[in-house]
Amino acid sequence: MKSFSKTVCAIILGAGKGARAALGYNKVLFRDNDQSVIKTATDKFSFCDKIIIVCPEDEKATFDALFPVNKGFTVVCGGNTRSESVRLALPYCDCEIVAIHDGARPYVSESLVRACIEDAIEYGSSVPCIKANVAIKETCGDTAKSVDRSKILFVQTPQVFNTEKIKAAYSSIPGDYADDSEIFEKAGYPVHVTPGEASNVKLTNPEDFKLKQRIGSGYDVHRLVENRKLILGGVEIPFEKGLLGHSDADVLTHAVMDALLSAAGLPDIGVLFPDNDPETENISSMILLSRVLEKIKHVRIINLSAVIMAQKPKLAGFIHSIRESLSSALGLPVDCVNVSATTTEGLGIVGECKGIAASATALIEI
Ligand code: MG
Question: What is the pTM of this model?
Answer without folding.
Answer: 0.66
